[in-house]
């Protein structure tokens, strides 16, 4: 969708002490994939660079790990898997959106992708698009913070 380079996914998952993954061919990325049996929190803890990371950095790293753990060997998410992730991992943002035309349009875009697969960039754009239109975002904006 945005035409960005795939290095974004690799940068979010770069482990301290490993060579820069953006210099490696895409085919080697799956060999560094963490086993699905390891919890996301343990996977995050193993990324030394995130030890002192901000909440936002950890949130993006979590999204990247969930994508990577769910993607196929080519680093893509099939349409059914993407929809399942939205329903299971993003349900508080998608809840109540099913009848809204914008939400239906976003999901129909999944059909337009070659082989019905999403890369990481397209998946993140989908998450952000759903976040922006969600009812939950309005609740988040109304939360009062103390300064």
What would you report as the Rg, rounded to the nearest angstrom?
16 Å
Mean pLDDT: 74
The N- and C-terminal alpha carbons lie at a distance of 38 Å
The profile of the biggest β sheet is:
2 strands, antiparallel
Order of helices and strands: HHHEHHHEHH
Strands across the major sheet, in which order? 1-2
Any chance you could write out the topology, listing elements then pairs?
Blueprint lengths: L6 H7 L26 H6 L9 H16 L6 E2 H11 L1 H4 L6 H12 L4 E2 L1 H14 L1 H7 L6
Antiparallel strand pairs: 1-2
List the defining traits of the structure above.
single chain; 2 strands; 52% helix; flat; disordered N terminus
What would you note in describing this structure?
The protein has 147 residues and is mostly helical. The chain has one domain. 52% of the residues lie in helices and 3% in strands. It contains 8 helices and 2 strands, in the order αααβαααβαα. It has a two-stranded antiparallel sheet. The radius of gyration is 16 Å and the shape is flat. It starts with 6 loop residues before the first helix and ends in a 6-residue tail after the last helix.
């Amino acid at each position: 969708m945005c035409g960005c380079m795939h290095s974004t996914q690799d940068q979010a998952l770069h482990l301290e002490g490993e060579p820069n993954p953006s210099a490696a061919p895409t085919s080697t990325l799956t060999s560094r994939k963490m086993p699905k049996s390891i919890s996301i929190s343990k996977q995050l803890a193993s990324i030394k660079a995130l030890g002192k990371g901000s909440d936002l950095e950890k949130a993006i790293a979590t999204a990247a790990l969930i994508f990577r753990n769910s993607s196929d060997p080519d680093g893509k998410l099939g349409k059914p898997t993407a929809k399942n992730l939205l329903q299971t991992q993003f349900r508080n943002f998608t809840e109540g959106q099913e009848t809204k035309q914008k939400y239906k349009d976003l999901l129909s875009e999944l059909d337009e992708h070659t082989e019905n697969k999403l890369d990481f960039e397209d998946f993140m754009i989908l998450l952000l698009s759903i976040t922006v239109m969600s009812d939950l975002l309005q609740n988040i904006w109304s939360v009062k913070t103390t300064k």
